[in-house]
Amino acid sequence: MKDGRQIRSMFASISRRYDLLNHLLSLNTDKRWRKKTVEASGLRGGERVLDVCTGTADLALAYANAIGPAGTVVGTDFCPEMLHIGKRKAASEKLPCKASLMVADTLSLPLADGLFDVVSVAFGIRNVADLKGGIGEMARVAKRGGRVVILEFSLPDNGLLGGMYMLYFTRVLPMIGRIVSRARNGAYSYLPDSVLKFPSKEEMCAVMRECGLTEVTTTTLSFGIATLYVGRKM
Ligand SMILES: C[S@@+](CC[C@H](N)C(=O)[O-])C[C@H]1O[C@@H](n2cnc3c(N)ncnc32)[C@H](O)[C@@H]1O
Q1: Rounded to 10 degrees, what is the CA torsion of 46, 47, 51, 52?
Q2: Which of 40, 84, 161, 201 registers the highest number of CB atoms within 10 A of its CB?
Q3: For ligand 1, which residues put their CB under 6 angstroms from it?
Q4: Domain 4-156+199-233 adopts which CATH fold?
């Protein structure tokens, strides 16, 4: 079991360099993945979206820019330092809808049941101390018929490309992350370690179903480096 306090202080320590490193280490692919996540959510104008573990709010902002003036987007995260960067970005953009960011633990969201048409998370659920608890909370606050959309790192298929990526991911990325973030707490070794320990696609789909989600689908992104999971609340 991961320790939420340690996770929160690790993200606080890298918050100021988080966006820079995200875009640098993924060569900007993260932006494309978030766009695909919004597309996969089946978002319609005027809907209500919750983005949990929103961090610096990139996915929440992508939803806000796609949802139209009648829509509402809420982003939550338990790390105020990450949210602070997100709030600054939200304030500097002229968002076309109502959007707010608030401190909240994904494991106990202070939100009523069945409020949202889309409940989403990008690269966050892997960090939540209790995977089933986190997905269960996401499903709880989704409306009946609403969609739960999860973007998460995964391991690429074997083969030459996969092997090269693993070398980059486990050796080069932690080194660049350490230098650029100046974090001495292993935050960028934690990234490959946590991805290597994360459940397989089949196990993830099983957990989503156990949380009351149906029609669970997976989409492989960038040769399997990331996977998009979508489920519908019964
Ligand atoms: C890798 S970042 C992802 C941020 C953002 N979603 C993105 O796409 O860049 C993971 C985020 O999950 C948050 N987090 C981890 N566990 C959490 C929990 N139990 N409740 C709320 N936020 C959590 C961290 O504070 C961090 O901001």
Answers
A1: 140
A2: 40
A3: 4, 7-8, 11, 22, 53-55, 58-59, 77-79, 82, 105-107, 122-124, 127-128
A4: Rossmann fold (3.40.50)
Residue 55, both tokens: 């961090």
Of 58, 33, 85, the closest CA to residue 220 belongs to 33
Looking at ligand 1, which atom is closest to the CA of residue 104? 21
- pTM exceeds cut of 0.90: yes
How does pLDDT run across 135-156, given as a tens digit for each residue? 999 999 999 999 999 999 999 9
3-class DSSP assignment, residue 17: helix
Measure CA of the first residue to CA of the last residue in the chain; give whole Å: 29
Enumerate the domain spans of the chain: 4-156+199-233
* CA distances in angstroms from 220 to 164, 188, 223, listed in the order given: 18, 23, 7
H-helix or E-strand spanning residue 209: helix 201-210
**DSSP class per residue in 29-93:** HHHHHHHHHHHHTT--TT-EEEEES-TT-HHHHHHHHHS-TT-EEEEEES-HHHHHHHHHHHHHS
